[in-house]
Specification:
Helix content: 40-55%
Order of helices and strands: HHHHEHEHEEHEEHEHHEEEHEH
Radius of gyration: 21 Å
Largest sheet: 6 strands, mixed
CATH topology of the largest domain: Aldehyde Dehydrogenase, Chain A, domain 1
Number of strands: 11
Strand order of the largest sheet: 8-9-10-7-6-11
CATH architecture of the largest domain: 3-Layer(aba) Sandwich
Structural class: alpha/beta
CATH superfamily of the largest domain: Aldehyde Dehydrogenase, Chain A, domain 1
């Protein structure tokens, strides 16, 4: 199976994703897909059908022949003896491990897939569909419970699990990812529409992704009511049991500790130095000038996944509303996984 055939297969998978999430699919496909979404939600309450569909839609936009070719054009991908690449997937948001799978297979390698128990329903569905589209992938996709003698490892987890990954897989070529968070930088000149888009960066997937904004950098004198006034369209989060439990728990803790905070019924704004924050909590910090922010962000570089800002204010930042819309070349932790595999 050459590169062209692999690209064709993934593009067809993208077509399937579009069909699944469209309103015009046939009843058989619709019922099968809806059943998978329900099973995913039963297994993991964070994976609502709406959020799962959002993930499928995001990948449908990327999995086209033109975008796949554009992404791969800078690389010299030659068909050679495939290597066995272990993939330890995260499960914090739907299909979060798909990019690693794509990279391993598109470069002609064998994927030893250790799925997260939080995302095994959707991921199993995707693997089955990919093999149905291109049966030759069946010998290139191996689902495992334990990685044994891989040629290389790509593992995603927390700071704690990363220590175990390094102990177990340090002898192999590896990419081991730890906790990262994303931030947004505001100037005060943003329109209400831009702040409404920022709400997507804050709350899509309940804020569980490493590309979700967990901290705001705002200029001194910024009116925080502008934030609350433009995120209310996410107020339905208060009706999700696991989300509201987080909101109630941390709100109660801050009240008991007599910590100052602002809240609106589903989100808490809390001035704090940490860039990471719990679900339903948004940290913020004031700044005097943009140079100060740049210095802070440079010092935090190894902890940041994504920076959101307007008008290209911060170098390599993404626009408001786009943090959860990464392209094929937007590699986690800015580590080029294609290049990593090609250099093995």
């Amino acid at each position: 199976m050459d590169l062209k055939a692999r690209i064709t297969a993934f593009a067809e998978l993208g077509n399937c994703f579009r069909d699944y999430t469209s309103q015009n699919q046939d009843n058989t496909n619709s019922e099968a897909f809806e059943t998978v979404l329900i099973k995913a939600k039963v297994k993991n309450a964070w994976f609502t059908p709406e959020n799962s569909k959002m993930a499928f839609n995001a990948w449908a936009e990327q999995l086209t022949v033109s975008k796949l070719n554009e992404w791969l054009s800078p690389y010299q991908i030659e068909d050679s003896q495939p290597k066995r690449i272990g993939i330890i997937m995260a499960g914090n948001i739907p299909l979060v491990g798909f990019h690693d799978l794509l990279v391993v297979l598109i470069t002609g390698n064998i994927a030893l897939v250790k799925m997260s128990s939080d995302d095994d329903v959707l991921m199993s569905f995707v693997l089955d569909k990919l093999i149905e589209i291109e049966p030759r992938f069946e010998e290139r996709i191996i689902r495992v419970e334990k990685l044994e003698e891989p040629d290389a490892v790509i593992a995603t987890g927390s700071n704690n699990t990363a220590r175990y990954f390094e102990a177990y897989f340090g002898k192999y070529p590896n990419i081991i990812r730890k906790n990262r968070n994303s931030v947004a930088v505001l100037t005060g000149d943003e329109s209400d529409d831009e702040i409404k888009l920022l709400a997507d960066d804050l709350f899509q997937y309940f804020g569980l992704g490493c590309r979700n904004v967990t901290k705001l950098y705002i200029p001194e004198g910024f009116d925080l009511n502008r934030i609350f006034g433009n995120i209310m369209h996410y107020g339905e989060l208060a009706y999700h049991n696991k989300y509201s439990n987080n909101y109630d728990y941390y709100r109660a803790i801050y009240m008991l500790n007599k910590e100052p905070f602002l809240e609106n019924g589903f989100a808490v704004l809390r001035e704090h130095e940490n860039i990471g924050s719990p679900v339903a909590i948004i940290h913020y910090a004031y700044y005097k000038n943009i140079e100060e922010v740049n210095e802070t962000l440079n010092a935090l570089e190894d902890q940041l996944q994504c920076i959101v800002s307007g008008n290209g204010l911060i170098e390599n930042s993404v626009s408001f509303g786009d943090s959860q819309k990464p392209g094929l070349a937007d590699y986690a932790d800015n580590v080029d996984t294609v290049e990593f595999l090609l250099e093995l």
